[in-house]
Amino acid sequence: MDEVAEIDEKGAIEVHIYCTSVYEEGDARSALIAMLQSLQHAKNGVDIGSGTRVKAHFGKPNWRHVYKGIAIQHPNDRVGVFHCGVHGLSKELWKLASDFSHKTSTKFEFHEQKF
């Protein structure tokens, strides 16, 4: 992840990592770890989970909100969505990519990695 961040001179690559084994994003029970994460990242520029510059999010994200935010930030752009994880989530992310590609000027291209 650090190598990708280093070669991204134009700031075109966004990496979103979610540690979903904790509570929903924004839940008070996950707030402490999120606060510690923000302090560590601000002070040292390093994520407490991965040890890289890519900041992880703690909690289960609202994927519709994530896609909406990306569509707003990147109008008329092509956005690659890369997912590695459980199939049920993969199906949901593919559906949202399709929906937002049709409802916004942003075109989402979904890619899945299976192990």
Automatic annotation (TrEMBL):
Q: From the UniProt record, which GO molecular function terms apply?
A: NAD(P)H oxidase H2O2-forming activity
Q: What is this protein called?
A: Ferric reductase NAD binding domain-containing protein
Q: Which Gene3D superfamilies match?
A: Nucleotide-binding domain of ferredoxin-NADP reductase (FNR) module
Q: Which InterPro entries match?
A: Fe_red_NAD-bd_6 (IPR013121), FNR_nucleotide-bd (IPR039261), RBOH/FRE (IPR050369)
Q: Which GO terms describe its cellular component?
A: plasma membrane
Q: Does the keyword Oxidoreductase apply?
A: yes
Transit peptide as a keyword? Answer: no
Where does the record place the Ferric reductase NAD binding domain? 1-97
Q: Which domain of life is it from?
A: Eukaryota
Going by the UniProt record, its keywords in alphabetical order are: Oxidoreductase
